[in-house]
Structures are given as structure tokens and as C-alpha cells.
Amino acid sequence: MRLSLDALETLDAIAEQGSFAAAAEVLHRVPSAVTYTVRKLESDLGVALFDRSGRRPVLTPAGQTLLERGRELLRQAESLENRVKQAAHGWETQLSIAVDELVPVSLLFPLIAEFDSMICGTRLRLSTEILGGAWDALADRRADLSVAAPGEVPPGLGLSTERIGYMHFVFVCAPFHPLAEAAEPIPGSVLQHYRAVVVADSSRRLTPRSAGVETGQDTLVMSSLSAKLQAQIAGLGVGFLPAYLAAPDIAAGRLVVRQVQNARDPIPLHLAWRSGEDGRALRWFRQRLLDHAALQRLLTPDHTTAGVNS
């Protein structure tokens, strides 16, 4: 066997981090060990996996094929490891949780501290997703549990869900933006002439989603909700933001709320997991999240959202 899980993990880390040195850091190895692993793998397979002619290593077609198939093997190996441990003790070896950016990942920190105190041996891995990414992470087996997966449940994926509440949005712009003085409610025909700030869907397999953009409207695409917020404060565009996220900047005068004809309705948020998977750590987090008071407060309209939603 010329392939090993260690070599595939190394290849995956390089592709994710963008360099051998950065991969060595996340793998807790010295850079020379990462370089040796890759060179040995290339020698064993008789192919070049990286093009090293530029400043950063770039996967060759052979390397890209190995990465894609190798990731699937790594997921299968992790699933097997989990099943073996669950068969003996019921606790998963690792639980991967995807959190949609609509809710702060810090809300999970008290639960993680509580979980750690049980010393059950399950490693936790958290990631953040945007738009359809929380659903995609389950389909792609990047996550075992998705928190605040938004909108309708994608059909045909074999997922189980529990609705946890609704996210409310406000349409905002900088006080010096031209739309700050526009007559309300602002029609879509007017919004079309001004750039919208949007976030990129993090889906890899599912069709990317979009929301709150008029047909033909120019967009500025950001990588996160926090970046979208800052871009709108800077007057680089307009758009919808979660009401709780925009509230401090509305209160401080850095953003102003505008009523628009095509208002964005509150969207349902879900806990979601693959049907038939029911390890003890997964069950524990599902139950605790359903009872999580801080999460429920975030998803319940209060004085910070009342009067600014339409």
C-alpha cells in the first residue's frame, strides 16, 4: 500500500492552509517532516502532486484527483473510527459541529466547557458556514451537527431537523449613503441602481443560495457577515443584516434602517443532523442546544428589533 492516512492528511492540510509551512503548524510538525511526507508520496506514486514553480505550491491535476478522493477516504476512516468507539462506549471519537454565521459561535462556548467537564474523550471540531453551507456540511460529511441551518430543509439528503427559532433582518445603509434620504418604502427599481453587499455561500456540493438582492443589482461579495457589516458601515453598499448584529451600530448612528418594498421575511433556523446517526455526544449537544437560553434569547425579537423589522 503506497497510500497512508497520514500522507492524505498532510496533503489535505497543505491544500487547506496554502503552504507547507502553514500545514506543518496545524499538524504540529516541523516543515521538513511535511516536505518529506509529500516527496515520499510523490516518489511512491511516481507522479508530481504539486507544481512548485511559483511562490506557493499548486496542486497538479494528479494531486487534485488524489486530494478529492483522499478526502473521501479520510471521512470514511473517521466514520469507521467513530463507529468502533461508539460500539464500545457510545461516545464518538470526534464530533464536528457547523455553526451558521447568523449566530455567534461564542454562544456554544459555555456548552463546550460543560461538555469538557464530563471527560468523555470526544474531540470537538467547530466550523462556521454561510447561507447553504450548514446544510452542505452535513451532505459533505464535514459536520455531524449543524447549528442554525437557515431556510428550508434541502430534500433528498436524509436529514433530521429541529426548528430552534427565526432570524429577523433589517435593511440598513450608512447615514451618508444616497439611500439614507430616499423616500420609503424604497422600491426594487431604485435599489437596483445601488450596490448590495452580500456574503458568499460556503457550500461545496449543494447549489449556492443567495438572498436580499434585486434582479440586476451590482454586488460586493464578502467572506463573512462581520466583513459585510463593516463594508456597509463604510458606505460601500447596502443590504439586509441580522437585526441583533446591526443593532449596536444603528444605536451609535453608524447605520440607519430603511424600509424597502421587498422586505426580507424572518427565516427559520434549524438544528440538523444525518438521520440514523445518534452517538451520545451528538444527542447531548442536540438536547442542550434546544434548551440553550442564550440562543433562544437571540432568536426572540425584543426591543432591539421591534419597530425596525418590516
Describe the protein's architecture and organization.
This protein is 38% helix and 19% strand. β3 (94-100), α5 (109-116) and β4 form a beta-alpha-beta unit. α1 (5-17) crosses α2 (20-27), α1 (5-17) crosses α4 (61-89) and α2 crosses α3 (31-45). It folds into three domains: 5-72, Winged helix-like DNA-binding domain superfamily/Winged helix DNA-binding domain (Arc Repressor Mutant, subunit A), CATH 1.10.10; 81-166 and 267-298, 3-Layer(aba) Sandwich (D-Maltodextrin-Binding Protein, domain 2); 167-257, 3-Layer(aba) Sandwich (D-Maltodextrin-Binding Protein, domain 2), CATH 3.40.190. With 310 residues, it is an alpha/beta fold. The strands form four sheets. A five-stranded mixed β-sheet has the order 4-3-5-12-6, sandwiched between helices. Strands 10-7-11 form a three-stranded antiparallel β-sheet. It has a two-stranded antiparallel sheet with strand order 1-2. Mean pLDDT is 87; it is low at 303-310.
